[in-house]
Structure formats: C-alpha cells, structure tokens
Q: What sequence folds into this?
C-alpha cells in the first residue's frame, strides 16, 4: 500500500512511519524543516538498526498544506492519505495559526483528494470534538463545541466537518479521534513534555481526569482502518481514563522521583495562570500555564474506546506499560 502522510515528523506521524515501513508499505511524508526530520531519525535509531535502515526508504517531501497547488502536484489517486498534521496550543496568541493549521489545511487536503479520487482518506481528529454532555463520551458524542470552549477543540471540529463534507461528495474516508497520545518524541513539545517536566519532580497535583492512549496503538489503528473496507465512520480511541494525579505518580515512580504531595485547587491554579500571563507580558515569552490549560487540569472528561476494540478485536496497551516504555527511552532520546 502507498501512503501519503501529513505530519510525518510529529509524534504520531513518526510512529506511524515505523509501523507502516515494518509492514512493507511505502510512504511519502510531508515535512516542514530539516530539524524536525532529525528528531524522527533519532526515534528510528533508538528502535534498533533494522528499523533505522528503513528510514532511508521514506520519500520525504517539503510542502505547505496551506498551498493547494503544491498538494495537487503531489497527491496521486492510488494513495491512501493519513492526515496527522495539526497544531495543539492553549495560547490565545496561537488561535489564528491553529485555525489555518487545523481547519484551512484540512479543507485544502480534502478538496484535492476529492478531485483526485484517492483510495482512502484517514483523518486524525481529537476527543476535543466529542463535546456532547455525557458521563463517558464516545464516537456518538460529536457535537459543535459550546460557546466558551477552547479554540483547539473548535478548530478540530471545523476540520472534521470538512472531512464529513468530503464524504458527502464521494470521499472514501474514516475519522479517528484519540485521547491524549503518549509516546517518546521531542521532550519539549506535546504530551512528551509531561515526562520531561515530571522527571524534574512536581510538588503539586490537580484532580482532573481524562483518557490516554499509547502512540503505537493509534498507529496500529490507522493501519487497521487502511487495510479494511471501513469507511464513513468515526472511532474514539482511548485505552484508559486516569486522574492526572495518578498519571504523574506513574511517571514519578518510573523516574524514581518523590510523588507530588500538594493539591493545587482551582483558586491556586487561577492565581498561577494569572501570574504566568503577567510574566509572559513582561518577558515576552510564552506562559507555562494558561487559563484554558488550568481549567483542563481540573476537568473530568472520560472517554470510551471500546467500539474500535470490539469491531477489530483490538487490545489497547495498558498505560502502566506505556509509561514504563517511554521513561526507558528517555535517555536514548536526548535532543540538543
């Protein structure tokens, strides 16, 4: 099978490349910078020489998803498209960039894929689009984000709506909505950053709770959907719902750090995000915590990924096992 991958140097894109190449598929992958490719190369190297050898078979293409003319030249009808590219941020200053990276880029890609009549289109969405109020949310909880919801969720909702619009126009597509994806990658970005922060030791914890899934499970799910007749469906992918306190304790334990012992209530986190906002204005730097991320730390958002597991006989990796594996890889993946 020939894949066309966006976001090939990101966390999910990198591990999808590993698994797709291991299974003998060919992949054309989009990248933005040579620096980002170096991170992907180092992940391959950390997985052993046999995996590293396959890195040279990737057809890397530098392209801009905001330029539909570039996409038109690159995409071929026999490709299976895997759209992993996107932007995650809690910073209000990133809203316009997220709109372009998540919505406009997807719109461009969908339009070109409809015109080309590609074999299949697999869109990586997010559980942030599963907004319908329910004790536990699943693929049936898709709903327009409420007023006041975070802009990331809104941008991913708009992006996903473009994919469903494409399906109405004949696009053979499927949507996967993973919860927080865990994996060893750039320790200063995304969910991998949580491990870097916890390695240094945290004193405080919050009482929020959410879903987690290992990056390898999401990569496997993409390949399963690509190789079956599945179409015009959404699947929520989530292995376990865990309190943030328990999650960070797992990381601290794996790193041999003392456990976080002080509860950070809503009042304390409200003070802290305001302090960070003021500091960012004075120093012209990004705040460590924003109003949105502080609220998220206290939210209880539970997700059910059983539908995918039942339909495909799929077993999720236990989060304890995932955390242990990521911590083990930490020293092998030091980035300058």
A:
């Amino acid at each position: 099978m020939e894949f066309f991958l966006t976001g090939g140097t990101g966390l999910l894109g990198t591990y999808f490349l590993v698994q797709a190449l291991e299974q003998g598929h060919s992949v054309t992958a989009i990248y933005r910078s040579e620096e980002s490719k170096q991170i992907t190369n180092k992940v391959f190297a950390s997985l052993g020489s046999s995996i590293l050898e396959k890195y040279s078979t990737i057809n890397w293409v530098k392209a801009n998803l905001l330029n539909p003319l570039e996409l038109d030249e690159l995409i071929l009808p026999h490709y299976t498209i895997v759209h992993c590219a996107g932007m995650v941020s809690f910073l209000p200053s990133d809203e316009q960039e997220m709109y372009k990276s998540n919505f406009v880029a997807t719109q461009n890609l969908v339009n070109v894929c409809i015109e080309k009549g590609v074999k299949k289109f697999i869109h990586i969405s997010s559980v942030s689009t599963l907004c319908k109020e329910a004790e536990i949310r699943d693929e049936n909880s898709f709903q327009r984000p409420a007023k006041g919801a975070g802009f990331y969720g809104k941008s991913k909702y708009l992006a996903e709506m473009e994919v469903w619009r494409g399906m109405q126009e004949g696009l053979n597509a499927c949507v996967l909505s993973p919860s927080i994806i865990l994996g060893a990658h750039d320790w200063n970005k995304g969910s991998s950053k949580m491990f870097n922060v916890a390695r240094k030791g945290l004193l405080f914890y919050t009482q929020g709770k959410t879903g987690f899934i290992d990056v390898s499970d999401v990569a496997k799910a993409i390949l399963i959907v690509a190789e079956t007749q599945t179409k015009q469906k959404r699947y929520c992918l989530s292995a376990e719902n865990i309190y943030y306190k328990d999650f960070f304790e797992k990381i601290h334990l794996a790193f041999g750090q003392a456990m976080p012992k002080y509860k950070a209530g809503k009042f304390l986190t409200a003070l802290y995000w305001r302090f960070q906002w003021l500091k960012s204005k004075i120093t012209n730097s990004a705040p460590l915590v924003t109003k949105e991320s502080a609220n998220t730390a206290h939210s209880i958002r539970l997700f059910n990924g059983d539908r995918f597991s039942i339909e495909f006989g799929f077993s999720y990796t236990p989060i304890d096992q995932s955390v242990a594996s990521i911590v083990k890889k930490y020293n092998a993946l030091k980035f300058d």
Remarks:
- The chain has a mean pLDDT of 92.
- The domain at 2-183+210-242+302-318 is CATH 3.40.50.720 (Rossmann fold).
